[in-house]
Amino acid sequence: MITLYGFGTGFGLPEISPFVTKTEVQLKMAGLPYRKERAMPPASPKGQLPFIDDGGEAVADSTFIRAHIERRYGFDFDAGLSLQERAQAWAFERMIEHHVYWALVGARWVDPVNFAKGPAHFFDGAPEHNREKLREDAQFRVAENYLLSGLGRHAPDDDVDLAVRSLFALSVQLGDKAYLMGNKPCGVDATAFGALAGILTPFFESALRQRAEGFPNLTAYVDRMMDNYYPEFAWTPLRQAA
User: Fold this and answer.
1) Under CATH, to which class is 2-73 assigned?
2) Where do the structural domains in the chain lie, given as residue ranges?
């Protein structure tokens, strides 16, 4: 059986990390049995989560895990899509992971109130004498990466404006369809769901979340995906939370 290593539940979500969420949803899409274990990034071959152990073979990074599933198990996450649609799905995935994701990071890690409420607790189990130093160092490293991503170079309102342009693109692509590429979920839906749920969770308050709530088809999409892939999770539908 495949073992999926992730962070686990938190922040009002069934999985803290949007990338672990992506892989977990894709495992469910493929109908593959798996068990899930908590881990921290240093345990991974690439120093990041998720990674999987599949019969003794360790595979790290959500995109490479997807490729592994497709190759080993013959599952096509984009079955039914034309070549052009596959290219579009890939482009949206890159936009989500290299733009929308960093907006989420800024809202969680750079905002001091949200950092104290959420990621700061990752270090609660550290020895008391260096706990605060570990928190400060981690926040500094993430803020530095946020700067390098490009979004962190802008004023707070400007970086949200840029992120909302990407959310607008996702909203237009989704339209009145059930899923991004049609009436059947495909690989990019796992990616989009992980990022959008991370932004829209009521656990964090942010300008980004407020702006994202202005796209009713995206909030309904997150509710739909949550119902489909985490029916056992106590999620208050966003339409009710609003």
Assistant:
1) alpha beta
2) 2-73, 83-240
